[in-house]
Amino acid sequence: MTESRYRRPSLLDALLPIVVLVVLLASAVYLYGDSASSGPNQIALLICAGLASLIAFKNGLTWREIETAMIKGISVALGAVLILLSVGALIGTWRLAGIVPSLIYFGLELMNPALFYAAACLICAIIALSIGSSWTVAATVGVALIGVASGLGLSLPVAAGAVVSGAYFGDKISPLSETTNLAPAVAGSELFEHIRLMLWTTVPSIVIALLIFLVMGLNTDVAGDTVDRITPLLQGLESQFDISLLHLIPLLVLLVLALKRMPALPAIFLGALLGGIWALMFQPQAIAVQAGEPAPGWVASLKVVWQTFYQGITVETGDATLNNLLSGGGMASMLNTVWLIICAMTFGAVMEHAGFLARLIEGLLGAVKGAAGLIAATLATCFGSNILTADQYISIIMPGRMFREAYAKQGLAPVNLSRALEDGGTITSPLIPWNTCGAYMQSVLLVPVTDYLFYAFFNLINPVLALVYAWLGVKVLRLAPPQEVYKTGSL
């Protein structure tokens, strides 16, 4: 922007689009319920992007500058969009290939309903820790666990909360995670020092979450006819697909690719391709059903697999529960989420480029007193950035840049900032429906964010615990005095 003609936004300028957005989003939820993210939220975001643009015009920005900022903001999310489309393809081909049905089948056979919520959280935590990707875990193991929960007659919102809790715990403390590397890079701290300090907030949070899930599971009123309900589902799965441990190989391949640090996009798309090959090799019956022919040839079979990449599959068994478990997937299933992300990033780009976010943070810093207040302000800013910019990476980078100098002035070690960036940014991102992470989790798990929000206990507890630590002064590390640094030989 041209500084000479651009007027500094007032606090009212910065607040007005946010207040209107909150009113519109609340109205959308009131009027449309769970379907608010299927259009109403997008319109609300675009209206507020327009309002922010009008205020920016008033302050001296041109339409070309605003439009360029919008395009740049959308481009930030294009990587996530491509991953979303690849995940849609993976879910479709893995259902057709019998991979997801096999995971559901073995889960229904082995999982104890009373222990399901805690077990689901723990399984996702371990896998996410080993591969460093909450998105990959949700799209693979998470999808299967939701299917198992449905088959067992358990609460899907609670199951989704368990998946999200475990996935984000493992992602947050894994040295393989992008955000775990990004936060210390922005704050100026060291990776493993950052992870060690995060353990003080993440481990108690996940332990509390696991205990809550365990108590909820033990107190869940599981119907006495659970076996009678599961048996038809198992039979239905066997009637539609070839069920075998052999079909878990593509999942293992994808996990190995993630461990080898292959980027998410090629790894997930390769997983989708492997699913298509697996379907051609092992699921002729399922392909025949999709083709509408008793014995389709190679051309017809290839056409079905090709179609599955973008359209997913539709299964009709006569059992509504089983149909919901097995149908879906495909790139087309992600288009509504892509629409939501584009609208959210458009609004966030205008707010950032017009200086509204910086103005809000500046006002926040003016009211900050002491280390506890600074950490609390960081947590609030990261959460607010997740709401306004709809992107967890921006919620780490922007507050990190803005607060770095303030931490140094307070004599706080940079690792305090990097931990706060994750406690307030990474952890809260899946709790916001229009955030890229929240939109992704909803599209993959097929449970609205507003439904699982209050059951993602780890994601709710962790920021609160971080705030309590800040006010009590627990593990708030200070910069070493210059003479001490000199004596230790660090300089």
UniProtKB/TrEMBL annotation:
Pfam families in the cross-refs: Na_H_antiporter
Parts forming coiled coils: none
Transmembrane segments: 12-31, 43-61, 73-94, 114-131, 143-169, 197-218, 239-258, 264-282, 332-351, 371-394, 452-472
InterPro entries per UniProt: Na/H_antiport_NhaC, Na/H_Antiport_NhaC-like_C, NhaC_Na-H+_Antiporter
Ranges for domain Na+/H+ antiporter NhaC-like C-terminal: 166-474
UniProt GO molecular function: antiporter activity
Membrane topology reported for the UniProt record: Multi-pass membrane protein
Gene Ontology CC annotation, any one: plasma membrane
Annotated localization: Cell membrane
Keyword set, alphabetical order: Antiport, Cell membrane, Membrane, Transmembrane, Transmembrane helix, Transport
Sequence similarity: Belongs to the NhaC Na(+)/H(+) (TC 2.A.35) antiporter family.
Protein name: Na+/H+ antiporter, putative
Lineage: Bacteria, Pseudomonadati, Pseudomonadota, Gammaproteobacteria, Oceanospirillales
Gene encoding the protein: nhaC
